[in-house]
Amino acid sequence: MNRILLVLALIFSGGILQAQELNATVTIDAEQTGQPNLQVFRTLEAQLTEYISQTKWTDKIYKVQERIDCNFTLIISNFESDFFTSTLQVQASRPVYDSTYDSPIYNYNDRQCNFEYIEFQPLVFNINNFDSNLMSVLAFHIYTVIGLDADSFELNGGQEYFDIAKQIVNTAAGSNFAGWKATDGTQSRFRYNDALISNVYKEFHDAMYEYHREGLDLMSEQPKMAKQNIIKSIATLKNINDRRPNSYLLRTFFDAKSDEIKDIFSGGPNVEITRLLENLNRMAPTKRSAWSEIRF
After folding, report:
1. Chain-centre distance of CA 152, in angstroms?
2. Which residues pair with 50 in a beta bridge?
């Protein structure tokens, strides 16, 4: 009987693991506080790791190899009693077909991530209520990551997740925390999500699919065509930039992709890159050092 129960437990736990969307790591960096070894930081790190990894965020089943690799680094600069001043760095990647390479799809530095927390308090997220700024911020980024990952595999595949992120924005907008409203600056969660769901930026989703599914995933079989498709996807982004120069959405894209683009076009079969370089330098002039390493 015990053996049967053990087998059933292993089968059940395996199913749970396959259901999860994220393969997440969480790091609390509290060096700036001058007290980085306080127990409260270790407790929070453990709680967040458990919550993010064990929560089922969608109704889809993910195989273990399909889980999205992502890193959350919470950098705490100050805390007083239960109020923490912090920023959050979120990075995520997706695997490339027939390779061991993971392609970065998200690199977001959230500078509006202050929150309240008492050690060992239950971490709660309810999409219909605002219970915790920290949990709402994390959920926003999680659904955005899931959406971008889906966009990279299926044309407009991420729409439902960007809509969920919008619901989180709307629910949190009534709070006193920054990042949720149109008045909170040009580099806010509101602005990023607004771009993802706006028709003004609809070609972004086309470019995500073309860049990854018709570009990177084709690289092992038809590298020249793959590079040409990636060039086309960059040209698609250029159309957005012509309408909305220096948009936060495109800046975040190139924060994730600049090193990868440099590497793609610094080896392999030759393709025409004159227009590519013009587009890259126009859209992401702060990455000129990377673009200058593209040699042919």
Report:
1. 12
2. none
Give the separation between CA 171 and CA 153, rounded to whole angstroms. Answer: 29
Measured CA to CA, the distance from residue 220 to residue 214 in angstroms comes to: 12
The Cα–Cα gap between 260 and 17 comes to 30
3-state class percentages of the chain: helix first, strand second, coil last, to nearest 5? 50, 15, 30
Q: What is the pLDDT of residue 296?
A: 67
d(CA 237, CA 203): 7
Work out the percent of the chain whose per-residue pLDDT is above 90: 89
> Coil, helix or strand for 61?
coil
Report residue 77 CA to chain centroid gap: 23
Across-strand partners of 80?
Answer: 83
For residue 263, the Cα-to-chain-centroid distance in whole angstroms is 21
Which residues are 110's β-sheet partners?
88
Q: DSSP characters for 161-179?
A: HHHHHHHHHHHHTTSS-TT
pLDDT digits (tens, 9 = 90+) for 224-262: 999 999 999 999 999 999 999 999 999 999 999 999 999
- Of 3-12, 26-35, 153-162, give the lowest mean pLDDT range: 3-12
pTM comes to 0.92
Which pLDDT band holds residue 53 (cuts at 50, 70, 90)?
confident
Q: Which two tokens stand for residue 27?
A: 């790091």
* Distances from the Cα of 99 to the Cα of 94, 120, 198, 218, 269, angstroms: 11, 42, 34, 10, 18
